[in-house]
Amino acid sequence: MSLLMLSDPATYEFLIPAALVVGSLLLGLAVVVFIVVAFFSALFARIDLGMKILWIVLIFIAPFIGALLWFIIGRPRAG
User: For residue 41, what are the contacts with CB-CB under 8 A and spacing of at least 6?
Assistant: First the structure.
């Protein structure tokens, strides 16, 4: 990209929406990965079967909040 192109306002009219689209896609992908990791973490956790089912249902009903709560308060601590 030359300096002459950078001085053209039309360049920014294209770059800003493109950056927003790419950023939104990356953020969405990160959220999906976070939820999938929480699901498998809850699925393979060494906890009571009833609690495991409860956490998995919560992750399905409210994916982001359920996954966040799983990692904050639900996941058993190593030790």
Answer: 70, 71, 75
